[in-house]
Design goal:
Layout (H helix, E strand, L loop, with lengths): L2 E6 L7 H13 L5 E6 L1 H4 L6 H17 L7 E5 L5 H10 L4 H5 L2 H9 L5 H15 L5 E3 L5 H18 L7 E3 L34 H9 L17 H14 L3 H7 L5 H27 L3 H28 L4
Parallel strand pairs: 1-2, 2-3, 4-5
The structure holds tryptophanyl-5'AMP.
The site of tryptophanyl-5'AMP has 25 residues, from strand 1, helix 1 and helix 7.
């Protein structure tokens, strides 16, 4: 069976963007692939983080994955930091990655501009991500559009390594949602909805009180065209709300558009707000059941065992190929 893998980094609470762009894809592929889903906690260290808050978020992520419908019997769920072979493989890959490639990554260029004292970890971030993907020979990597370039780099690194040292890595393909690959900020629908955004009005956290989330939708920035159409270029706000509603209800964008022909933005926003509110109420109630049981630890112990064995085997193989062994 082919393998699918993805991870999310705990730099803030999970958002609706993370759900639609990543978690939902994993849920939709359930049963069709051998599936690996993890918390990319080592990646969170590439930017300043409060250790106490970071630690607290890790289990919240696992609880939320499951609350969002990820069946722990059908996915191997684990913490990146509990598998010491992943950063070890990353070092081997770093020595097969060019500085030019890493420094050309869009995310590196943007984030390094935000803080003059950025770390080396910010530069090598995509190599660690390549290690995440390649240690287990993932065939498919579902991500939002912002991570596409990193998955492509992982593929390039794998291909180069295979050619230089021998066939050892599967070349991964990126898997992107047709519509939800980039959910936009509700206040500024030209920028990505982000966990680390300082203005919470534009972001729906999966932990938001459903009533608060509904009011964020009601206040979302739209336009003055007064027509409900999927037109991301001219109507980014309305198109974003259509994508959110369609992703959460599994109803086609076209059929939602038809439903609101001739109606106003107020009615449409109320409809989207209701869908989002119901979704949050449902996952939060499931979250509370899970987080108060000891299920999360059992799931993580199992994930650690399975993935450590896979990564150890790969590390030993790579070390031999590169000549660093006894
Ligand atoms: P992260 O934590 O920034 O985001 C997790 C996933 O959510 C997607 N995403 C979005 N999708 C749609 N709309 C949005 N507004 C939105 N915001 C985020 C991201 O594209 C991502 O798929 N580097 C990764 C974590 C990672 C990883 C990996 C992913 C580490 N190793 C290996 C895949 C494979 C990251 O920071 O994602």
């Amino acid at each position: 069976m082919k393998r699918v893998l993805t991870g999310l980094k705990p730099t803030g609470d999970l958002t609706l963007g993370n759900y639609i762009g990543s978690i939902k894809l994993m849920k939709d592929l359930e049963g069709k692939y051998e599936s690996y889903l993890f918390v990319a906690d080592l990646h969170a260290l590439t930017v300043p983080n409060d250790p106490v808050l970071l630690h607290e978020r890790i289990k919240k992520f696992i609880g939320m994955y499951i609350a969002c419908g990820i069946d722990p019997t059908k996915h191997v769920i684990y913490l990146q930091s509990e598998n010491a072979y992943i950063p070890a493989i990353s070092w081997l890959l770093e020595c097969s990655t060019y500085y030019g490639e890493a420094s050309r990554m869009i995310q590196f260029k943007e984030k390094s501009k935000q803080n003059a004292n950025f770390t080396v970890g910010l530069l090598t971030y995509p190599v660690l991500m390549a290690s995440d993907i390649l240690y287990c020979d993932a065939d498919l990597v579902p991500v939002g559009i912002d991570q596409k370039q990193h998955v492509e780099l992982a593929r390039d690194i794998a291909d180069r390594f295979n050619k230089r040292f021998g066939e050892v890595f599967t070349l991964p393909d990126v898997y992107i949602n047709e519509h939800g690959a980039k959910i936009y900020d509700l206040q500024d629908p030209t920028k990505k909805m982000s966990k680390t955004e300082e203005n919470p009005k534009g972001v729906i956290s999966l932990f938001d009180d459903p009533e608060v989330a509904k009011s964020k939708i009601m206040k979302a920035t739209t336009d003055s065209l007064a027509t409900i159409k999927y037109d991301p270029e001219n109507q980014p706000g309305i198109s974003n709300l259509l994508t959110i509603a369609s992703s959460l209800s599994n109803e086609d964008i076209d059929s939602i558009v038809n439903k609101f022909e001739g109606k106003g933005y107020g009615d449409f926003k109320k409809y989207v707000a209701e869908i989002v509110g119901n979704f949050l109420t449902d996952i939060q109630s499931k979250y509370n059941d899970i987080i108060n049981s000891n299920k999360v630890d059992e799931i993580l112990d199992n994930g650690k065992e399975i993935t450590t064995k896979l990564a150890k085997d790969k590390y030993e193989k790579l070390s031999k190929m590169m000549g660093v062994y006894r």
